[in-house]
Amino acid sequence: MRISTANSYDRTIDVLQKRQSELSKLQSQLATGKRVQKASDDPVSATLSETARNRLARTEADLRSLEASRASLQQAESGLAESGELIQQVRDLLVAAGNGAYGPNEREDIARQLEGLRERLIGVANLKDNAGRTLFGGLGGASTPFVDTYPPPAGEVQFNGQRGQTAAGDRSLPQTLDGHAIWMEIPRGNGSFVVNFPTPPAVNAGSVRSDLGEVVDSSLATGDPYRIDFASGAGGIEYTITNTTTGLPVTGHQNVPYEAGKSVTFDGLRIQLDGSPAPGDQLLVSPVSSANPTDIFEVVKNAIDTLRKPDNAVRTHELGRAMTELDAGLDKVLLARGRAGEWLNRADSLEKLMGDRSADYEVEISRLEDMDLVKGISDFQTKQTGLEAALKAYAQVQRLSLFSVING
């Protein structure tokens, strides 16, 4: 018979070691549940898995950023809601201030309430989120974007932030809003022109005033300033409208008898005059530009100053203008609040989309790396049985020797 050689012995040992290594690898895979534990286990799956992991990490980072944006937007939306309520309170007080029975004391009380509401408006504009970032500072800048220089003579609010705001993307939303666009870009008067009283030392002696007016035909509008002069005529008070750029009276509006409550139309503009003018009184019609807007804080300040003026006609005229500008400011706030609400709705959609995407990446990683436990257990048992059989066979072969044959 043939006796096992050293070569067959070594080969048997190699086979046993290989089976032990395979069994050990299966034990490790079963313990971790991972089929791919290192790149050499399956280079293709390991590469694809790493790519999926990187995408999952980016998506999770986007989700964290989205959650931060959502928290900031929720606080900004709440601040805009409070701002709208404060502007409405200001308007209600101005309506009350128009009560003809109110005297200086009542108007002063309203003025003081308006000062408090104005301070609260500035406080809302300077709100910060939980991270200490200003909610309405635009693209950055000062930690306090709205700085008040009130009371007079300065009496204005300066915006020290940076105008503009980050655009919404496929995976991100703004975390701050442009406060300048919300509160600092209110059109003056009717947005095209304003009617003012002469500046001191010239003062009207009568009670003439006007409404805010409107542009009825933009093709005829010159964009020039005008002056309305009132003088004594043969039949009473007359008015003349002069284009102060050309220095010429407007055709058809020279020495015209004045009628209270009558609308006057000239060069595409319409103004309703009211009250009782005195000879020498004037009204000034000045064009306004979008490049020179007012702001909500100046509107309230002007209303406060107006309430402290003794002239009833001036108060009535300027409070009417203040309420129109307040309405325009409230529209700006409501528009910004609506935009913030849209972004919050979009945040919900993005969160669901990125959550689904993360789940897909996790499934892909599991498919590439994880082990089929049922198949793994079956393979382990098969290899374990094969190793046990090989060990028994090896034990029998190991006992064979030439002496056993001779003795047998």
Q: Would you give an account of this structure?
A:
This protein starts with 5 loop residues before the first helix and ends with a helix. It has 408 residues and is of the alpha+beta class. Strands 3, 6, 7, 8, 9 and 12 form a six-stranded antiparallel beta sheet that branches. Helix 2 runs antiparallel to helix 3, helix 2 (43-97) runs antiparallel to helix 6 and helix 3 runs antiparallel to helix 5 (296-307). The protein folds into two domains: 34-187 and 293-370, f41 fragment of flagellin, N-terminal domain; 189-292, no CATH class. Strand 1 and strand 2 (157-161) form a beta hairpin. The protein is 52% helix and 14% strand. It is rod-shaped, with a radius of gyration of 42 Å.
At the fourth level of CATH, the homologous superfamily of the largest domain is f41 fragment of flagellin, N-terminal domain
What count of helical segments does DSSP give?
A: 8
Structural class: alpha+beta
Q: How many distinct domains?
A: 2
Beta-strand residue percentage: 5-15%
Determine the oligomeric state from the structure: single chain
Cα(first) to Cα(last) distance is 13 Å
> What is the number of E strands?
12
Mean pLDDT reading: 84
What is the molecular shape? rod-shaped
Radius of gyration: 42 Å
**What is the fold named in CATH at topology level of the largest domain?**
f41 fragment of flagellin, N-terminal domain
Give the SSE string: HHHEEHEEEEEEEEEEHHHH
Low-confidence stretches: none
Helix proportion of residues, in percent?
Answer: 40-55%
Tell me which CATH architecture of the largest domain applies here.
Answer: Up-down Bundle
- Identify the CATH class of the largest domain: Mainly Alpha
